[in-house]
Amino acid sequence: MKLVDSHCHLDDEKFDADREATIARAREAGVERMMAIGTGDGPPDLEAALRLARRHAFIYATIGVHPHDAAKATPETFDCLSELAREPKVLAIGEIGLDDHYDFSPHDVQRRVFRQQIELAAGARKPIVIHTREAWDETLTLIREHGLPFGGIMHCFTGGAKEADQALELGFHLSFGGMLTFPKADDIRQAATRTPEDRLLIETDSPYLAPVPHRGKRNEPAFLAETARRLAELRGVAPEDIARLTTSNFDRLFGLG
Ligand SMILES: [Zn+2]
Ligand SMILES: [Zn+2]
After folding, report:
1. Ligand 1 centroid distance, CA of 239 (Å)
2. What does the pLDDT look like over 225-242, one tens digit per residue?
């Protein structure tokens, strides 16, 4: 199987002790390419993922300010993001969005920083990677206001059938992670079953949310095959079909290959 992990936090400190070994294990497990998410600890450091992408041909990067870090964004942050967006290995602006669960940054600041980054992505002609938690309707409203001219990913999709249909109608790809394998996640499995094959992606969101049978442990890209297998089972296809589809969807969305 040749898999693409569309969302992992390889810069996370949980990988400090064995980052290169983790990347090597991923490759051995068939994860040929990885999208390193570059939100890191937030501004002023915006290159957390790009540093890894510069070291490895098969790692791509995003740049962006996570909603948790929205309060750290300054005018310099946006200048720097615009500049970094020109780097060929920066494929998307993300993860950006709204998180009303933790509320680490004030409500109105999250919305302003999200808007500014949607506009920045459009200017840079890049897709966006969305993180949304307990703010679904408002996230969609903001996207509708701006449109989705270069496409986007709903990362770690946790909605059900209704939310899937709404996001698909806007033009999003849905990326499914380890939660797809959790016993109680029937809603997510319903969403994954109805997503058209040309909009499917898979991810680990490492080091978070490891799939069964690794649940509760540190997640890593090598575990992506578990999610691919579960998705294949749900859709009544072979894991190789899921690998092929999700890889070609990734390439098409980002103009690769
Ligand atoms: Zn997220
Ligand atoms: Zn993430």
Report:
1. 25
2. 999 999 999 999 999 999
